[in-house]
Design brief:
alpha+beta, five-stranded antiparallel sheet, four-stranded antiparallel sheet
Length: about 190
C-alpha cells in the first residue's frame, strides 16, 4: 500500500510539473531585429542595410578549401544574393592532385537549378568557367545577375575519370576596389 501511494504521488507530481513546464516551454517570444531594407538580413549583419538587393560585401567559401569528389559529384556556392546585384569581382583558384581534369563552372541561377536536379545539358557562363583543367584561376567582374559556382566532376562538359579526385580551391567574391575621384574621395565604380 505504501508503495502504491508513492507511485500515485509520483505520477501526480510528474503530471503537475510536466503540465507547468509544458506551459512555460510552449510560449514563444519573438525578437524582431531591425531590417531597414526588408531583404531578410538583419541590419547588424547586412553590409548594405539600406539596399534590398545586396547584403554582403565579400565571402570566403568553405573554409577548408579542399574536397574529394567522386565521379558525378560537384560542390556549389552561390555567388550573388540577388538578380539585381552586379559589379562584384569573382576570384577563384582550383588545383587537382593528379592529372584527372575537372571543371570550374559558373551558372546563371536558373540553369544551375536544372543542373542540380541532374540535367547535364544546361548552359554555363563560359566567360567565367574553366573546363577540363587540373589547375586554373580566374579573376573577373561579374555581370548583373545571380550566379552559382561549381567545382564539377560530372559529365556536364568534361567526362569524369574512374576514381575520386582531390581538389583544393579558393573562392572569393568582393566589391570592386574603390577608385579615387578628382576630389580625392574614394568611390566604388557603378
Amino acid at each position: 500500500m505504501n508503495r502504491s501511494r508513492r507511485a500515485l504521488l509520483g505520477s501526480l507530481a510528474a503530471v503537475t510539473l510536466g503540465g507547468c513546464l509544458d506551459d512555460v516551454t510552449s510560449r514563444s517570444t519573438t525578437t524582431t531585429m531591425s531590417d531597414r531594407d526588408g531583404d531578410g538580413v538583419p541590419d547588424r549583419g547586412d553590409d548594405y542595410p539600406d539596399d534590398p538587393d545586396r547584403a554582403f560585401r565579400s565571402f570566403h567559401a568553405d573554409s577548408g578549401g579542399a574536397t574529394t569528389l567522386e565521379p558525378g559529384d560537384f560542390r556549389a556556392f552561390a555567388l550573388t544574393n540577388s538578380p539585381e546585384a552586379s559589379g562584384d569581382v569573382l576570384h577563384y583558384e582550383a588545383s587537382v592532385a593528379g592529372d584527372t581534369p575537372i571543371d570550374c563552372l559558373v551558372f546563371e541561377r536558373d540553369a544551375y537549378d536544372r543542373y542540380e536536379r541532374g540535367a547535364r545539358d544546361v548552359p554555363i557562363a563560359e566567360s567565367y568557367s574553366r573546363t577540363a583543367v587540373t589547375e586554373t584561376s580566374l579573376t573577373a567582374r561579374l555581370d548583373r545577375g545571380a550566379y552559382v559556382f561549381a567545382v564539377d566532376y560530372t559529365d556536364q562538359t568534361t567526362p569524369t575519370g574512374t576514381g575520386p579526385v582531390d581538389v583544393t580551391y579558393t573562392l572569393d567574391l568582393a566589391e570592386p576596389r574603390a577608385e579615387p575621384t578628382s576630389t580625392g574621395r574614394s568611390t566604388a565604380p557603378e
